Amino acid sequence: MSQKKTVWFEVEENETIEECLDRMQKAGYIPTGRKEEPLFTEVNGEKVPIRQLIKFKGQLVEK
């Protein structure tokens, strides 16, 4: 089964950015993009930010 050429990798809640990049490299991808978006929860009818979601776009390394 062939791998996808482009995959988004999300930095997990208890993972550092460096650990996510290492995970990408082990899977055969290099980072080619990054996006961040806030994650909110609702408290007393107001949206409160919990944390920042960070995702890296991985490009498959041709061997």
From TrEMBL:
It comes from the Bacteria. InterPro entries: NETI. This is NETI motif-containing protein. It comes from Sporosarcina siberiensis.
